[in-house]
Specification:
Largest sheet of chain A: 7 strands, mixed
CATH architecture of the largest domain in chain B: 3-Layer(aba) Sandwich
Strand order of the largest sheet of chain A: 1-9-8-7-6-2-3
Distance between the termini of chain B: 34 Å
Strand order of the largest sheet of chain B: 10-9-8-7-11-12-15
Order of helices and strands of chain A: EHEEHEEEHHHEEEHHHHHEEHHH
Low-confidence stretches of chain B: none
Structural class of chain B: alpha/beta
Distance between the termini of chain A: 58 Å
Number of domains of chain B: 2
Largest interface: A-B, 55 and 44 residues
Number of strands of chain B: 15
Mean pLDDT of chain A: 92
Strand content of chain A: 15-25%
Number of domains of chain A: 2
CATH superfamily of the largest domain in chain B: Nucleotide-binding domain of ferredoxin-NADP reductase (FNR) module
CATH class of the largest domain in chain B: Alpha Beta
Shape of chain A: globular
Number of helices of chain A: 13
Structural class of chain A: alpha/beta
Strand content of chain B: 25-35%
Shape of chain B: globular
Low-confidence stretches of chain A: none
Oligomer: heterodimer
Helix content of chain B: 10-25%
Helix content of chain A: 25-40%
Number of helices of chain B: 6
CATH topology of the largest domain in chain B: Rossmann fold
Mean pLDDT of chain B: 94
Order of helices and strands of chain B: EEEEEHEEHEHEEEHEEEHEH
């Protein structure tokens, strides 16, 4: 039988404290003192309360793909073979520790389908990502806090979708029922919390059942890949969709499925590091070549590419699974209220008339 | 786990100036390479960039580099005996088998000659193609790469050379490369295969003209240039539609390339 425990609300902090002795623990928390301010995932510290009441402003992405990370270290040294040469060493600090994210949501975990395809598959695998991925576990909340920007059900997910999660968290009025979904995760729960009595189990079951039935979002994505192709050359359509865009790139930074990065060298005197950091296809320099040629010179091409990538190119290549997890963060964070649901919805509207 | 981001240290054997801003570096790099493939070259501290292989033979590999950015400036400070770093080769490159028995036409503009130089050399003296015609275009006579080899190809009748602009001392052809396409012998359309490499604008007009001359889309190959960071299908920069240029390209059949939405 699956390992299942109950954590009373007033016991949560002590349980998390114990859990943190077994594994590196990350929780959703306020990033500033302001109670209504931005939230994101931070390493657990005793006394820090997790914020389960709303989806985090920032996704879990950085746990697997840090915003900035060192790929290699190098140091210039006089080479015995002569010449003005350097020696270069790999960064062996690539020590990944087992990590548990306590309080992820199904949209965050669903985004990993896209991330895994990029970093773990293909002719080359990314060792930095793959090692983190193997060592990162997700305790996922059955989500009851979807808001008007969420649309996980429209893109193949759902508020109770546990695919890819290791633990399931159901919030009751009096506490949390946590269930292990894998054997390994079960051992994390050993000695924690209390047994789940029948009444609580029934209550949790009911919450899961209701969440499973709930449809979040009403975007119809059927046929969007083909609709995108039909719309591709209709500049009027894209001008209208993107006219207010500031090319700020926030949609890509808060997006759990956006994975683009750039590689740069940073040096100080004779030592340096080769870094990778998040990049954004919304920036004009993203495709700017050394020759000065830019294949996507305006925001029209760039935004069109972003929509196409998630709703046409990825699903056409990978059996219809979209490159969007429906978390709604790009909509919530956009300073000029661009709504990707509206753009995707409009792809199919009267596409032949324009 | 093997780390594909880790470059190898490579010795520079020779540096050959081609023009005032293009230099060929002969590197001690012994790897199985196909023409059209590229390496991620780096100078630690200055960064990495994708650079096409222009030639290779007997454990030596040549790359032709134009001084246009931070990395290439750092490269230009290096000379014989110095080291740089490389990982690769990456990309699909040209498959010689695609051109067996063909009337092959190679149309190269500017630095676009680099990725097809080895291919031209290989086919020029070989009977694996039925015939070879090369059309080369440069901006001015001062921009001509691989001067000695190009002159030899022109003299032997393999290549036609034109420059966009020149002063009165230039006795050769003038005008854009597109103006010379009609001189190509395209009499056997079924056997005719064309390779087009060069700046995007040149590829656009040359392929359009070839289609007008009734060359089939499936018989035209292009090599695409994109900004790249990783070279291994991760970072996203070179992606056109669903294709990573670094993995599935940079060489594409035109029939595939035109399907890619950008």
């Amino acid at each position: 039988m699956a390992v299942k425990i109950f954590i009373a609300t007033d016991q949560l902090d002590s349980v998390l404290e114990k859990l943190a002795t077994k594994i590196d623990l990350w929780i959703p928390a306020l990033l500033k003192e302001d109670k209504s301010g931005p939230t994101g995932f931070i390493p657990y510290e005793p006394g820090k309360s997790p914020v389960f009441e709303r989806q985090t402003t920032l996704p879990t992405k950085k746990l697997l793909l840090p915003q900035v990370e060192t790929l290699l270290r190098f140091e210039y040294k006089k080479d015995p073979e002569g010449g003005s040469t350097s020696s270069i060493v790999v960064d062996d600090a690539r020590q990944v520790r087992p990590t548990l994210v306590f309080g992820a949501r199904s949209c965050d975990v669903r985004a990993l389908i896209t991330m895994d395809r990029v970093f773990s598959q293909g002719p080359y695998v990314d060792p930095y990502y793959v090692e983190r991925r193997k060592n990162t576990f997700f305790a996922t909340l059955v989500c009851e806090q979807n808001d008007s920007k969420c649309f996980c059900s429209s893109v193949g997910g759902g508020p109770a979708d546990m695919e890819g999660s290791h633990l399931k968290i159901v919030k009751l009025d009096e506490g949390y029922v946590v269930e292990a979904l894998t054997k390994e995760a079960g051992s994390l729960l050993e000695g924690l919390g209390e047994a789940v009595d029948k009444a609580k189990d029934t209550k949790a079951g009911k919450i899961v059942k209701e969440a499973s039935k709930r449809i979040v979002g009403d975007l119809d994505t059927k046929g969007c890949a083909e609709a995108f192709r039909n719309r591709f050359a209709q500049n009027d359509f894209w001008v209208q969709m993107v006219s207010q865009c500031l090319s700020c790139g926030v949609c890509t930074y808060v997006c759990p499925t956006c994975y683009c990065f750039t590689i740069t060298d940073e040096t100080q005197n004779l030592k340096g590091e080769r870094m990778r950091s998040w990049d954004s296809c919304m920036f004009s320099q993203y495709t700017l070549e050394a020759s000065g040629h830019n294949p996507r010179p305006t925001k029209l091409e760039r935004y069109r590419n972003r929509v196409g990538h998630k709703f046409s190119y990825i699903p056409e290549k990978y059996e219809g699974i979209l490159g969007c997890c429906g978390c709604g963060r790009c909509i919530r964070s956009c300073p000029v209220t661009i709504d990707i649901r509206q753009v995707v919805g409009n792809l199919k509207e009267n596409s032949n008339e324009q | 786990m093997k780390n594909p981001f880790l470059p190898e240290k490579i010795k520079i054997l020779e540096v050959i100036p081609e023009t005032s801003i293009d230099y060929t570096y002969v590197l001690a790099l012994d790897k199985e390479v196909k023409p059209g493939q590229f390496f991620q070259l780096s100078v630690p501290g200055a960064g990495e960039a994708p650079i096409s292989v222009s030639d290779f033979e007997d454990g030596k590999l040549c790359v032709t580099i134009r001084k246009v950015g931070r990395l290439t400036n750092a490269l230009f400070a290096l000379g014989p005996g110095d080291f740089l770093f490389a990982r690769g080769p990456y990309g699909n490159g040209f498959d010689y088998r695609d051109f067996a028995g063909a009337d092959l036409k190679v149309i190269a503009g500017g630095t676009g000659l680099a990725p097809v130089k080895k291919l031209i050399k290989t086919f020029a003296g070989s009977d694996s193609v039925s015939s070879l015609e090369v059309l080369l275009g440069f901006k001015t006579p001062e921009d001509i790469l691989y001067g000695d080899e190009v002159r030899a190809w022109v003299q032997s009748g393999v290549a036609t050379l034109t420059v966009d602009k020149a002063d009165d001392n230039w006795e050769g052809n003038r005008g854009l490369i597109t103006g010379y396409l009609k001189n190509l012998d395209l009499s056997d359309r079924a056997r005719c295969k064309c390779i087009v490499v060069g700046p995007p604008i040149m590829i656009k007009f040359v392929t359009a003209e070839l289609l007008l001359l009734k060359v089939a889309e499936d018989n035209i190959w292009v090599s695409l240039e994109r900004k790249m960071s990783c070279g291994i299908g991760k970072c996203g920069h070179c992606k056109i539609g669903d294709a990573y240029v670094c993995l599935e390209g940079p060489v594409f059949k035109f029939s595939e390339a035109r399907r890619l939405l950008d």
